[in-house]
Automatic annotation (TrEMBL):
The keyword Hydrolase applies. It comes from Escallonia herrerae. Belongs to the glycosyl hydrolase 100 family. GO terms for molecular function: endo-alpha-N-acetylgalactosaminidase activity; sucrose alpha-glucosidase activity. Coiled coil: none annotated. Its EC number is 3.2.1.26. This is Alkaline/neutral invertase. Keywords: Carbohydrate metabolism, Glycosidase, Hydrolase.
Amino acid sequence: MGTSEAVLQAFSGAVPRPFCSGPCFSKLDIASPSRSFVRFGKRRGLRCRQFHNSSKSLQNGIGIRQFAGKSASESLRVLRCKCQHAESVSGLTAEDGKGTWFVDNTQKLNPIHDTVNGPNVLEFEELKAEKVGLLSDHLPAVGTVNNAVHKTSVTSVEDEAWEMLRESMVYYCGSPIGTIAANDPTSSSVLNYDQVFIRDFIPSGIAFLLKGEYEIVRNFILYTLQLQSWEKTMDCHSPGQGLMPASFKVRTVPLDGDDSATEEVLDPDFGEAAIGRVAPVDSGLWWIILLRAYGKCSGDLTVQERIDVQTGIKMILKLCLADGFDMFPTLLVADGPCMIDRRMGLHGHPLEIQALFYSALLCSREMLTPEDGSADIIRALNNRLVALSFHIREYYWIDMKKLNEIYRYKTEEYSYDAVNKFNIYPDQIPPWLVEWMPNKGGYLIGNLQPAHMDFRFFSLGNLWSVVSSLVTVDQSHAILDLIEAKWADLVAEMPFKICYPALEGQEWQIITGSDPKNTPWSYHNGGSWPTLLWQLTIACIKMNRPEIATRAVEIAEKRISQDKWPEYYDTKRGRFIGKQSCLYQTWSIAGYLVAKLLLADPTAARMLITEEDSELVNAFSCMISANPRRKRGPKSSQQTYIIMYSDLASTVILEMSCFYWDIETSLGCVHGI
Ligand code: GLC
């Protein structure tokens, strides 16, 4: 690494910037609902200029980094910086009055907890410092490491997790805007783990929301929104405008033509630099889910009501709802579009994306303000919700009964009323599944394509289908039943398996391309990921079965801190820290914290849970109970049914054209609600 690179690294990442004394243009920029962004010369990214003495800042930057993750004194530096920051951001509002970024909502009633918001960042850190005996007059001199104080101050795994989470915070122009993926001081190869990943920040954001620290989440939402508009290309090709980056990095670079000044740049990666060049389909969907959670938890609805935020939601939806060649209501994507961001046979219609898609549609429906320009998108959204839910519940669901049906499927049925619509050959049922499927319980398969069912159990997709009500109440319970029945495989010695089982032998060679990182029972290929604890917890709370999550958290708690918060574990039972696993992985830390906080206050999980409308429940159940062999009429006789239903925000008209499956009669039963 060259000196200049070292300088950049020292400035960027998880270090607050106490010396950012110059004007921060990007703040004005971000408050503007017109979604403009500053571009300077040929360099890419959002920019924030700072004028300061470079050498002094460099010393300080390095000084802080040396102690990252280690010193109590460092926390105090963070605290001082936040103190300056609190002053510097106050009073910044949108110029034209349409956007209101820095609305002070700290005294608003919190609709989830029914209490006034908790202390702000600064107050909270002070309280915490007091609690752990770090009052300023007991402090060692700045820059020294007092290990004794540090060790005794960590009173529990949870306290340690909070400390780690705070140390992973990334600042842009003095404002906290995210958390880096991993903050491992011993690692020599960071790859892109020093970036803020959109998906990784979600549990961090939720943890901060649960603590009443809203600013970092609001900043994250608004800055990533600015990146959405960025012109992105790979070899002259541009993806859709609604795409959100997989990650971004704060870089500090010398200002063109001015040696005494630097500027901070937000540099996004939309997949054009990512390993394998995978497009992050999940980023925008998670962004929408976090936006709703922010509004619900903080009570500050001004962010979601902003014109630029509304436009951002619509851009994501437009991209997802665009017509294509596809026959299915599920979203068609390339391989590696989500948490599993390497070649793992996910291309097509992977469950995780469908669950997040459904969840984001429901969240958007709640947040979109009814106006002339939104009518079409709301109609498309409602149509898709019903179609998607029906498709997943009906065709992705598998349990003993369904497995037996597939086992006896006839194939090559050319007709509208085929039972085996996707022409699945019964020989596809893998031998492991015949043994593995419990008598009680079931799950959603990983993917469905013509003549192909991916029978692997993917945890995140199943858990989020419960959280978002993509599956029915019975199916939700059955998923939890299966988790309990298969505890030794899915939880074992570290929750939670990312998927089950692992691809082995020739299958591993063909499907992963002999990926040495994804060997059987490692990483994405059957590894165990502690971050999944938070999604498991919400699913269990929603189904009123929190004891399942409590058990899993207790297992994780036994070793996760001693193991230094690994990104993932290897082996069938999750016994080893992953071969190439990062340590101090932020979403392992945040996932654990969110699980703990929610188990302590289950009602707070409501900010992430979405329930379906009772009218739609009726429509779904009618569809599912309809006779699949009923004859399909000619196209001209297809009817459009109008289903009226209302939610808190508005009454909408749902136009239900009948799709490729036979649902005319079933819908008839809800006609005219
Ligand atoms: C790996 C994971 C991905 C995660 C990233 C940062 O690439 O597969 O899901 O976002 O690391 O932690």
